[in-house]
Automatic annotation (TrEMBL):
<keyword id="KW-0804">Transcription</keyword>
<feature type="region of interest" description="VHIID">
    <location>
        <begin position="272"/>
        <end position="337"/>
    </location>
</feature>
<comment type="similarity">
    <text>Belongs to the GRAS family.</text>
</comment>
<feature type="short sequence motif" description="VHIID">
    <location>
        <begin position="303"/>
        <end position="307"/>
    </location>
</feature>
<feature type="region of interest" description="Leucine repeat II (LRII)">
    <location>
        <begin position="353"/>
        <end position="385"/>
    </location>
</feature>
<dbReference type="InterPro" id="IPR005202">
    <property type="entry name" value="TF_GRAS"/>
</dbReference>
<keyword id="KW-0805">Transcription regulation</keyword>
<feature type="region of interest" description="SAW">
    <location>
        <begin position="491"/>
        <end position="566"/>
    </location>
</feature>
<dbReference type="Pfam" id="PF03514">
    <property type="entry name" value="GRAS"/>
</dbReference>
<protein>
    <submittedName>
        <fullName>Scarecrow-like protein 30 isoform X3</fullName>
    </submittedName>
</protein>
Length: 581
């Protein structure tokens, strides 16, 4: 474990910086265009991200998240090779047996369909000796919100791009054209008659039946009607065809791990910007998490956040800025940042870099700060390494990353349950759990493929309605994030398949078995999130509640879910969230 600390008395404020030299798109201000809505500080996240792109050598470094997951898949695939297990054949033979009983049966789908997607930022192979070489002035400007309007995000994070809609225009479709269609448009309509989902499913079934000749014929047909530059269905078909082809050739793990080296962290993070502007998922998750923790820690003098899957730490600038504005002064903040080790001689380097950025941000806002980095497989971490102080208010968070921790379907002992038991031993005052809602974790290939098809089609359709087709960042995100995830789901098997989501109802059962009890949602915060999504985003975005979960999705399909938990034996000792009924 690595750590460092800034003591409050030694911090001096250099004052607000002039950000007028940043040409920006018009983004909503503190009240998102409606003075009746509460303010938020999400603009700090956008500028944090933008200044990382401007101030660090990310063009020469791979994406942190992609490198971590590629290493995880390659490591496990090597283990499978050593044990001589022919995983794909075993899975396909089981699928053929199951199809005798399930083939042709139609399954009813719940309004809240279970699915996947998440984007998180990057990773690196090159080793850098000193963080001090990075220009700290850039982070000064990156992490400041408007000094005249505390808590606002009226300062945008990036320069205007040709073709990029601003945030208030996201999801607004163009008026349909009048008059007779041109010949090229009529030709496009003819192509749309092709049932791509049916062709893809037939191809998957042929692969499952080891009928590679038919599978290749179907792949050729799919290629004729798919394109990474077409509409949502054509793009989906293109990337699913890539994954099916990799499965046929037995190159799934190789193709998946290759993603981590072909695109830089800078390009991936630029694409992530497009994603967080096109959808409300990350912003609303940030608001829900930050404001809930703020309500819990109103009277706290010391706060300890244990973040499983911290990556670049995008979700903490807003919270830090809010702490700095407390009337009686900010409490001491301690963050333990946990993530997987990177390859090379300095496995914790990238996790430590995240801490240094956050430390600089805390110093700017006079928030006493201490940080510890842990770069280990999560299931191997001990309670003692976390250095819990019972005088602190302890918050554990894990946002959308537990799906990559092995469960009982891939290993004998569930690492997923081990991590939950560790969190329970921490005995946090609050456990914030965000999950990617998905049903494509079945061991049977065709069943998994069909569920993945439903899930990813929603995501491609979402981008089709919210971003221009020629947007370069959209193309990168679809290729390097959605294409990469679908490659792992479709072409990889055994322990190399690390995309293993569960539904929020499955997570509820798992958390309860681990000894947690759910905490009610704060109605005021939920109301704020609903209002902002309705005001600012496409009408097909979903915000709903089911039990004590808040759900986000697209056209009735749930993609993300978030809830709050506490060890069951501690429940009832005090009110956690204020107005929680």
């Amino acid at each position: 474990m690595a750590g460092f600390e800034y003591d409050f008395p030694s911090i001096t404020s250099s004052g607000p910086l002039n950000l007028s030299n940043f040409p920006v798109d018009a983004l909503p201000g503190e009240h998102d265009g409606d003075s009746s809505l509460p303010g938020d500080t999400f603009g700090a996240v956008l500028q944090y991200l933008n200044q990382m792109l401007m101030g660090e050598d990310l063009e020469q470094r791979p994406c942190m998240y992609q490198e971590l997951s590629a290493l995880q898949a390659a490591e496990k695939s090597f283990y499978d090779a050593l044990t001589g297990v022919e995983i794909i054949k075993v899975a396909d033979e089981k699928e053929k047996e199951r199809d005798k009983f399930t083939n042709g049966s139609a399954k009813k789908r719940n309004h809240y369909r279970q699915d996947d997607e998440h984007v998180e930022a990057g990773r690196a192979t090159k080793q850098f000796a000193s963080y001090a070489e990075e220009p700290t002035e850039i982070f000064d400007e990156a992490l400041l919100c408007s000094s005249s309007n505390a808590g606002s995000w009226d300062l945008s994070y990036c320069e205007a791009k040709p073709g990029r809609r601003n945030n208030q225009q996201i999801g607004l479709t163009q008026e349909p054209k009048r008059g007779r269609p041109r010949a090229s448009e009529r030709k496009l309509n003819i192509r749309e008659v092709v049932d791509m989902r049916s062709l893809l499913t037939q191809c998957a079934q042929s692969i499952s039946d080891f009928d590679n000749r038919t599978a290749n014929q179907l792949l050729n047909q799919i290629r004729q009607h798919s394109s990474p530059h077409g509409d949502g269905n054509e793009r989906l078909a293109h990337y699913f065809a890539d994954a099916l082809e990799a499965r046929v050739s037995g190159m799934g793990t190789t193709m998946y791990t290759a993603f981590s080296t072909r695109v830089s962290a800078a390009d991936t993070l630029k694409a992530y910007q497009a994603y967080i502007l096109a959808s409300p998922f990350r912003k609303m998750s940030n608001i829900l998490t930050g404001k809930t923790i703020q309500k819990l820690t109103t009277e706290a003098s010391q706060i300890h956040i244990i973040d499983f899957g911290i990556l670049y730490g995008f979700h903490w600038p807003c919270f830090i800025q809010a702490l700095s504005k407390r009337p009686r002064g900010p409490p001491k903040l301690r963050i333990t940042g946990i993530d997987l080790p990177q390859p090379g001689l300095r496995p914790a380097e990238r996790v430590e870099e995240t801490g240094r950025r956050l430390a600089h941000y805390c110093k700017k806002f006079n928030v006493p700060f201490e940080y510890h980095a842990i770069a280990r497989k999560w299931e191997t971490i001990s309670l003692e390494e976390l250095k819990i102080d019972r005088c602190e208010t302890v918050i554990a968070t894990c946002l959308y990353r537990l799906r990559n921790v092995p469960d009982e379907t891939s290993v004998t002992s569930s690492a997923r349950d081990t991590v939950l038991h560790l969190i329970k031993k921490i005995n946090p005052d609050l456990f914030v759990h965000g999950i990617l809602n998905g049903t494509y974790n079945a061991p049977f290939f065709v069943m998994r493929f069909r569920e993945a098809l439903h899930h990813f089609s929603s995501l491609f359709d979402m981008f089709d309605k919210t971003l221009p087709r020629h947007d370069q960042d959209r193309l990168v995100f679809e290729k390097e994030v959605l294409g990469r995830q679908s490659m792992n789901v479709i072409a990889c098997e055994g322990t190399a398949r690390i995309e293993r989501p569960e539904t929020y109802k499955q997570w509820q059962a798992r958390n309860e078995r681990a000894g947690f009890r759910q905490i009610p949602l704060n109605k005021d915060i939920v109301k704020e999130v609903r209002a902002k999504v309705k005001l600012q985003y496409h009408k097909d975005f979903l915000v709903d509640e089911d039990g004590k979960w808040i759900l986000q999705g697209w056209k009735g399909r749930v993609i993300y879910a978030l809830s709050y938990w506490k060890p069951a034996h501690e429940l009832g000792t005090r009110c956690l969230l204020g107005k929680d009924t």
